[in-house]
Structures are given as structure tokens and as C-alpha cells.
Amino acid sequence: MGRFLKEKTVAIVGCPFSGGQRRTGVDTGPHALVSAGLPKQLEELGWKVEFNGHQKFEEIGKTITSDADIGVMKQPRLVSAVTKAVADTVEKHARAGHLPLTLGGDHSLALGTVSGSLRVHSDAALIWIDAHADINTPETTETGNLHGCPVSFLLGLPGTDVEPFNSWVPAKPLLRSDSLVYIGLRDIDAGERKILRDNNIKAFSMHHVDKYGIGKVVEMALDHVNGNSSRRDRPVHLSFDVDALDPTVAPSTGTPVRGGLTFREGHYICEALYETGCLVAVDLMEVNPSLLEDRDAQQTIAVGCSLVRAAMGETLL
Ligand SMILES: NC(=[NH2+])NCCC[C@H](N)C(=O)O
Ligand SMILES: [Mn+2]
Ligand SMILES: [Mn+2]
Questions:
Q1: Which region is the signal sequence (predicted)?
Q2: d(CA 203, CA 286)
Q3: Phi and psi for 85 in degrees, rounded to 5?
């Protein structure tokens, strides 16, 4: 069940939120995943499932009367308030010794989920599966979409000590740049490439997946975050953006990029991380059922459920 959990309980944190990017519909992702039967599927894997409805972000929305751009940042007050609420919720579940499973919603939410995890598991490593690095700062972002920025805030990079986020994101960052590893990258902005280089951040792009194979890549990723210690005993937060998968596998997502992970490569990552026994939190983000045909949406939802099951112990044998 995992060495850092007090019981085999998964707490589903459904986050119907789209404010970190421009396309509508990603806020319906969590409803779709739950309606597809995810809670019951996790029960069948032997988990006790805690789910009392999705997060009520409308209440937060009502408290924000105007949300003008700050610099180029879009909807900064809303994203800040929502991610703060998510951090508190994830923290609460982690403190109870349960595994928070956050369903997105756009990837800005991970500023909240990872903050919540790190408040409880201060030595947790972050494994980020994505076509994108999501490490733009408010200064480097070309789009102003905050789903492209959560990692820079988590690391406290220069330019992230800005309102309204500095009202709750700690000035002394909870995440260190050597505690983070990426898998699946293939669409990185110029500013992000410089940040990755300057901070010496470990990243396995699709080129590396092709070169070494996914098995070796996951081994190297785990070695990296564990400082090459064979004990491999660091807690792990897995943040999985469904656009890491190839668009032929998971088409209904807001920023698809060709040349992605196969169905098996995506599942292998989840299975291998479950096997470590060190997972303390899982995010599944950027499922947008309103994009493309219904058939594509159904396929993406099914793959999303299947990735989560793989991270929660489903194996073929
Ligand atoms: N979570 C995502 N899908 N992020 C896509 C980010 C794309 C681009 N790098 C940006 O900053 O806007
Ligand atoms: Mn992405
Ligand atoms: Mn992402």
C-alpha cells in the first residue's frame, strides 16, 4: 500500500478548473473521470476510496470580482486562490496518512497539489510526466497561461515572488531543483530551456525515451531523485499531464503535441512508480472531454482512468 501511508485509502480531489489556460472544457475532466467509474475501479484494487464530491471553486470565483492581467499573467487572482485551496485540501489528506489523487483540470493546479504534499512529506521528490516543462516564470511566459508556470513557483525561481501568489507560496521554496525530474518532454519554450539548463534540472525528453527505452529512463529518474542511493526510499509525488501521451492515445487535451509516449510507456511509468511503494500523491491533469469528437473524449477518459489504476497497483498478473 505504500510505506508512507497510514492506511490504504485514496482521497479523490476532483478539481473542475480551467483558469490556468484559455480553452473551455478542461474543468469537466474530473466529472468525466468519476462518472466513468474511477472510484469503483480503485475499490476493486483494494483501496478504500474517500470522495465527497468535487471541489467547489465557484465559491472562490465569486469572491474575485475583477481579475485583470498582472504583467502578462492571465487570471492570476483566481489561479492563486484556487491553488491555495487545493494545497490546503491535499495537505489535509496527506496528514491523515491517505493518498491524495487529484483530478484536473488544468496543470496550474499542481502548484497546489505539490505544495500540499511537500508540507507533509518535506523530502518528497516530484516526478513530472508531460510534453511540456510548465516551468515558465511570470517573466518568461509567452502565453501568460499559468498552467505553463506551476513548477517555477514551486522552485521559487526569480520572478515568482509576485502578487497574489506571494501571499501564500512560501518565499523559501519547498522544492529543490534536484528533487524534480521530467519524463516525456518535447515542446519546451526558449525561456524554459534556459531555466532547465541554468538550474541543472534532470529531464528525459522523448529523445531519451527512444534512446534508452522507458524502463531505463524510469530507473535513471528514480536514481536521480534518490541521489543514486540504492535505498530508493524517498516519497514521490507523481504529476501526470495526459498530454505526455501521444495524441493518438490521448487526443482530448488542450495542448497536444505529436511524438508522445505510447499507451504502454505511460502505463509503465505509473506501474513502476507504484512498485516503489513510495508514492504519496498522484495528479492526473489536462483531460478535456469537450475537445474533438465524443469518441476521442471517451478514449481519453478511459486512458486516464487506466493510468490512475496503474499508479494504484493494477498489473496484468
Ligand atoms: N500544462 C500544459 N499543458 N502546459 C502547456 C504550456 C505551453 C506553453 N509552454 C506555455 O507556457 O503556455
Ligand atoms: Mn502538457
Ligand atoms: Mn502540464
A1: none
A2: 20
A3: -60, -40
69 is in an annotated binding site: no
Whether 98 is catalytic is no
Q: Which residues of the chain have pLDDT under 50?
A: none
Alpha helices in the chain, H assignment, sequence order: 29-35, 38-44, 57-63, 76-95, 110-120, 150-155, 190-198, 206-212, 214-225, 263-276, 294-311
Catalytic residue among 243, 265, 283, 314: 243
Residues with a CB atom less than 6 Å from ligand 1:
107, 132, 134, 136, 141, 143, 145, 147-148, 189, 241, 243, 255, 286
**Domain 9-311 top-level CATH class:** alpha beta
Q: What is the pLDDT of residues 186-224, one digit of tens each?
A: 999 999 999 999 999 999 999 999 999 999 999 999 999
Other C-beta atoms closer than 10 Å to the C-beta of 142 total 12
Cα–Cα separations (whole angstroms), residue 287 to 51, 77, 211, 222: 19, 23, 28, 26
- Among protein residues, the one with the nearest Cα to ligand 1's atom 7 is 148
CA–CA distance from 281 to each of 1, 126, 300 (Å)?
12, 10, 21
ipTM higher than 0.95? Answer: yes
Do β-strands 202-205 and 99-104 pair in parallel, antiparallel, or remain unpaired? Answer: unpaired
pLDDT at 203 (0 to 100): 98
Q: Where are the domains of the chain?
A: 9-311
Per residue in 95-147, pLDDT (tens digit) is: 999 999 999 999 999 999 999 999 999 999 999 999 999 999 999 999 999 99
The pLDDT, as a whole number, for residue 292 is 81
For residue 317, what pLDDT is reported?
72
